[in-house]
Amino acid sequence: MSNKFHDAINDELELDAHLQEAQAEASQNVICHKSQGLSNNTTELEKNLEEAELAIYYFFNNKFDEAKSIVLPHANTSMYHSMGRAMFSFLEAILTFERAHILQAGDELRSCLDICQKYRHKNTISESIGKKLKRTAYSALSDMEAHAELCMAEALLLQALLIFAEDESLTTLIKGGVQINHCYNNYKECTLTLSNREWQSQISKIHFESGVRMGMGTFNLMISLLPASVIKLLQFIGFSGDRDAGLEDLNRGYKTSGLRQVLCALTLLGYHLIVCYILGHQEGDLVLCDDILQTQLEKYPHGALFLFFKGRLEFMRGNLVTAEHWYKMSWRSQNVWPQFHHLSFWELLWVNCLKVDWREASLYASHLVESSKWSPTIYSYQKATTMLMLPNLTHNENQIIDTLMTTAPTYKQRIAGKSLPMEKFVCKKIERYFCQGKWLCLPAVELMYVWNTFTVLSKQHSLADGIYQIIECKFNELKNLKTQRIYDADNIALCLLLRGAFYRQMKKNSLAIKDLKECIALKNAVKDDKYIIAFANLEAGLIYADENQVDLAINTLEKIKKQYTRFSLESRLHFRIHTALMDLRKRVAK
């Protein structure tokens, strides 16, 4: 019995050993399979990123068909290919503004979000509990799952922007706001993911970082530009806006070799060459822009967008002939997307206005009227105003102007439930045109001021004389009128504002302040153009800032917000006041 018992015990122990070996082998196989799965996912991700890079290279060199041929075959299975297809459709929708393209882009963005959802991390029960307790297990994410979160944030942002273009209801506005909030939270999570996990592939980390820098940088920059009252509301619901942090992120994203490096470059160019001049009063970082453009034009020598920004850089430097050359190169670099031409036509219109070549300016205005659907109201009015500056108009030209003025208001649009402020301004000016017997005071020069192109005058004083003579001549003509007319005060105030703004650009501050104070003194006599008085105060405040009278500048700008409301272009003025106050308060903090 004893021997049998010992034999049985030995058999049991041997069986247990075999079972433990089998379990260990099975566990090792599971680990190996999981590791193999992660390896396969990493390889698949790197291949997708490589193809996305190639598609971007083709796209920004105007090889649009080649770019599409890369993204379309796998757009229903790969998130990066799907994102590429959706981006193509989004750009087409925004550039054409046609409803069919907007709907198609919406469908493809929804498809992209569905694909991203499939690749997202599926939480275990313990991870779900941790998430509720605000403890996200970033280490549990694979590289593929991290990129799914990033692509989802980008697709949500594009979807929100598209929603605003789709219709004008309050429901749409709320829906778009919710999408942007969701997108912003995704980007914040991606920022934490970047620094709180071990990356399986350094390549995927670099591409991921460029996306995080681009997203958070753009959000911070955009929000920082909004007026203080809006920022306070956004901060209450979780948004934040820090211009310096945004620019720092975008610069870091631009200096990486990641997939979104080119988008960081374009955002920086857009901010420093366009936003700074339209919404602010100080010039952008032209040295940085020059550096970016040299690098990007080596990589994308035929890229319509980079050729355009090269033209814009020269325009902001006051080199109008050189700017004209680059804008035309951008325009003629491709014909697949003629909507890109409209960017150059817009700029060439203002280049020729500064050159006082009204005939050439009206030619580019005509191109916009005939081929762009962005704002026929604004385009029609701009063409009419450039023609009104021509001497000795023919009967046929007068008829064309009357037709443009009559039809322009019929094209008025609403976006995100709101009328465009510039279109409202244009419609009021058209009413004035007919009220004044088909005449307007310096209409094209007024638009040049409104679009802030006067800043270029300070770079090339030789350009300035032509504009000055036009303003001076009209002002003297109005002052010498023997009979009074209903809008005389409005027209004289406009001339004083334009001349005062001109003097500020020429650094003739005492002359500028004299004109601006005379303009402000007409506030009770001005009948319609109340915006003129508010903007005259802005110009005075900017002069005080230039003279380093910081307290006086801040008080003047703050007073405008309290004393002047319900006038044309009020939101544009508030943007400019906000950027000026940001700079002034930074000086005080130092």
UniProtKB/TrEMBL annotation:
Transmembrane segments: none
Record-linked SUPFAM superfamilies: TPR-like
Recorded superkingdom: Eukaryota
Pfam entry (one): Iml2-TPR_39
InterPro entries in the cross-refs: IML2/TPR_39, TPR-like_helical_dom_sf
Name of the protein in its database record: Tetratricopeptide repeat protein 39B-like isoform X5
Species this chain originates from: Glossina fuscipes
